[in-house]
């Protein structure tokens, strides 16, 4: 009798276990648990094609009106809320020095007109712009182009005064209201930067720039963002990479209006979720010291390239990520973006938009393209491959997540989503609009229910699906919804294939 009862009990336990495994977990969105209350939105690195913008550039004027329109059409689909526009004084407006050593500037040069074309687009489309210079003029990546003794570093008042002249022209004369932040020196902690990891030099430059902006009456138009550091550790720097952010918050919080950092995590750190933990801790630290917007100013994935067909491509520099051609990169970048938003970043900027924007060390060698883009707008002209102008897979996920997470949203918490390598983020507005993005970076399908009963959401829902077997597009290659449905009282039933991305939104675009 005891044996029979034991068998019955054992069978019952097995049955319960199987039912528990098959039952869909229920996850909830907590609108009162806000991750980002200052959400700006996501965007792109956007450069004015320094090697192809004018007749005098290294490649000549390959960026014709037709090419610009191709780029603008694609950017218009992405609908970036923010763009990082980095440049170099000697690429645009600095034309040399007079006999007294004073800079000669030309704000109506052909190079400046190319920049105006880009800024006009941002102004018209209400895209917040981070403007800045890669580093000290005439010095790029420790390679002196000419006039190497013209400036002494980021803390040279002569360079700061030159920056102020440019800002005064752009903000007061051209009246670009889209330019909100100024970035002094790209990745100043790196050994490739013109500051070579000298925090004191960079800090003195920030102090000079802050004072000069106020003196020129430009502080009502623009403010400073920093430190723009990477997680790379330069042995010559006093501080480790991410410690630059902490020291900015501790030492000069009143001089910057927003923090920013760059990162190129490994695929494994994204797939494991380690990335979110590292940056969640960093954002929480800065919030505890002096809360202000925190922007991930460059995001891309480092790792072994997997596109065999492009490994021997003679146009590709060592500074490239050939996985941009692969389907999986679209999943990984969506996962990285979800983790970034869940970490508390108020904006995330993809590196980068277009292969045609930059070359290794920006010397204009077409055989050393920086292949990180969503496409190569000059594929035919530079590589004799029209197909290289096609949209790459990760355009799909980055665009749907950028256009549908809007600046009027609060990014809020998902609770109880405990499925390995499945991550989600949500944005909601006061009016009931919402966007939910889910990435499944595992090797098996995942199913769960999103409980929406505690949310006042608009009932019409659009679903986008990015999967290996199904990712519908229109004639231009732009993503289109895979489904439209009405929100039910029992929430949203999610069934997401392995290695795929789903986005739900109420925005009828």
From TrEMBL:
<keyword id="KW-0378">Hydrolase</keyword>
<dbReference type="InterPro" id="IPR017853">
    <property type="entry name" value="GH"/>
</dbReference>
<dbReference type="Pfam" id="PF00150">
    <property type="entry name" value="Cellulase"/>
</dbReference>
<keyword id="KW-0326">Glycosidase</keyword>
<protein>
    <submittedName>
        <fullName>Cellulase (Glycosyl hydrolase family 5)</fullName>
    </submittedName>
</protein>
<keyword id="KW-0732">Signal</keyword>
<feature type="domain" description="Glycoside hydrolase family 5">
    <location>
        <begin position="102"/>
        <end position="306"/>
    </location>
</feature>
<feature type="signal peptide">
    <location>
        <begin position="1"/>
        <end position="20"/>
    </location>
</feature>
<dbReference type="GO" id="GO:0000272">
    <property type="term" value="P:polysaccharide catabolic process"/>
</dbReference>
<dbReference type="GO" id="GO:0004553">
    <property type="term" value="F:hydrolase activity, hydrolyzing O-glycosyl compounds"/>
</dbReference>
<dbReference type="InterPro" id="IPR001547">
    <property type="entry name" value="Glyco_hydro_5"/>
</dbReference>
<comment type="similarity">
    <text>Belongs to the glycosyl hydrolase 5 (cellulase A) family.</text>
</comment>
């Amino acid at each position: 009798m005891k044996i029979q009862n034991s068998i019955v009990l054992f069978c019952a336990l097995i049955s319960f276990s199987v039912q528990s495994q098959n039952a869909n977990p229920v996850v909830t969105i907590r609108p009162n648990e806000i991750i980002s209350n200052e959400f700006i939105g996501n965007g792109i690195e956007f450069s004015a094609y320094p090697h192809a913008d004018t007749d005098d550039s290294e490649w000549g004027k390959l960026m014709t009106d037709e090419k610009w329109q191709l780029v603008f059409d694609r950017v218009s689909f992405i609908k970036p809320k923010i763009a990082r526009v980095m440049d170099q004084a000697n690429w645009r407006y600095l034309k040399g020095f007079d006999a007294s050593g004073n800079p000669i500037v030309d704000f109506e040069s052909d190079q400046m007109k190319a920049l105006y074309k880009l800024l006009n687009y941002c102004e018209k489309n209400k895209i917040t712009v981070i403007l800045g210079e890669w580093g000290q003029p005439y010095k790029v990546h420790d390679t002196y182009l000419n006039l190497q003794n013209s400036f002494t570093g980021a803390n040279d008042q002569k360079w700061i005064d030159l920056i102020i002249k440019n800002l005064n022209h752009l903000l007061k004369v051209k009246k670009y209201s889209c330019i909100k932040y100024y970035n002094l020196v790209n990745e100043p902690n790196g050994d490739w930067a013109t500051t070579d990891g000298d925090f004191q030099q960079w800090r003195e430059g920030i102090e000079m720039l802050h004072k000069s902006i106020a003196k020129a009456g430009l502080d009502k138009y623009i403010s400073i963002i920093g430190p723009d550091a990477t997680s790379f550790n330069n042995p010559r720097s006093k501080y480790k990479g991410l410690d630059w952010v902490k020291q900015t918050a501790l030492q000069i919080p009143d001089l910057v209006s927003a923090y920013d950092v760059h990162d190129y995590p490994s695929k494994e750190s994204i797939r494991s979720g380690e990335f979110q933990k590292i940056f969640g801790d960093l954002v929480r630290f800065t919030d505890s010291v002096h809360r202000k917007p925190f922007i991930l100013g460059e995001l891309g994935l480092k790792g072994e390239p997997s596109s065999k067909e492009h490994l021997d491509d003679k146009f590709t520099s060592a500074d490239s990520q050939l996985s941009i051609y692969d389907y999986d990169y679209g999943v990984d970048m969506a996962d990285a973006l979800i983790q970034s938003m869940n970490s508390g970043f108020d904006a995330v900027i993809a590196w980068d938009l277009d292969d045609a924007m930059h070359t290794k060390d920006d010397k204009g060698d077409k055989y050393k393209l920086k292949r990180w883009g969503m496409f190569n707008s000059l594929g035919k002209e530079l590589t004799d491959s029209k197909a290289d102008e096609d949209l790459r897979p990760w355009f799909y996920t980055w665009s749907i997540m950028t256009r549908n997470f809007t600046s009027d949203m609060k990014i809020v918490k998902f609770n109880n989503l405990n499925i390995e390598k499945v991550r989600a983020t949500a944005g909601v507005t006061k009016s009931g609009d919402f966007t939910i993005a889910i990435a499944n970076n595992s090797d098996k399908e995942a199913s769960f229910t999103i409980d929406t009963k505690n949310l006042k959401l608009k009932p019409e829902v659009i679903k986008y699906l990015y999967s290996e077997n199904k990712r519908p597009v229109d004639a231009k290659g732009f993503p289109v919804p895979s489904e439209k449905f009405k929100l039910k009282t029992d929430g949203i039933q999610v069934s997401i294939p392995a290695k795929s991305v789903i986005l739900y939104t109420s925005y009828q675009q």
